[in-house]
Amino acid sequence: MSGAAWAGMDVTLFDPDIASVAAAGARTAEYEQRLREARLKIFKNLEMRRQRAMQSRAEAAAQARARAQEQVKAARAAIEQDKQQAMAKLQADAERLAAEIVRVVLQPVEAASSVGGL
User: Fold this and answer.
1) Contact (Cβ atoms closer than 8 angstroms) between residue 46 and residue 52
2) Per-residue pLDDT tens for 30-73?
3) Which pairs count as long-range contacts for 103-112, CB under 8 Å and 24+ apart, including other chains?
4) Largest CA-CA distance found in the chain, in angstroms, rounded
5) What torsion, rounded to 10 degrees, do the Cα atoms 63, 67, 69, 74 define?
6) Backbone angles phi, psi at 14, to 5 degrees
7) In the chain, domain spans
8) Sign of torsion, CA 37 41 44 50?
9) What pTM, to 2 d.p., does this model score?
10) φ, ψ at 117 (rounded to 5°)
């Protein structure tokens, strides 16, 4: 056979070692493809877990923020109530002191006028 005749023929038909190498190469390519697919699947799963964890943290932070805002609101209401009570007590004390001052200041005048009126 001439060189041109051999060029068109499948060499693997005549050399089993070449056929084994070609089959091994095909299996290796298939293995590498499956390995890439498995890695991609793992990375996708990791990314999905990371996204879920970030979402969970964000939700927890939002809930904590809402609880803190409610606590601040309750504390402000309590402070306002304490303020109102303190103002009412101060008003009552001021009125009581004013009455006491008037009584103390005017009592000597009344006592003097009753003594002087004799």
Assistant:
1) no
2) 999 999 999 999 999 999 999 999 999 999 999 999 999 999 99
3) none
4) 165
5) 160
6) -105, -20
7) 7-86
8) negative
9) 0.50
10) -80, -5
The two structure tokens encoding residue 53: 């964890």
Tokens 């803190």 found at: 68
Which amino acid type is present at position 73? K
**Cβ partners under 8 Å of residue 11, min gap 6:** 18
Could you tell me if 12 and 22 are in contact, meaning their C-beta atoms sit under 8 angstroms apart?
A: yes
Predicted confidence (pLDDT) per residue in 64-90, tens digit:
999 999 999 999 999 999 999 999 999
Which residue type sits at 8? G
Tokens coding 54: 């970030």
Closest CA to 14 of 29, 27, 1, 28: 1
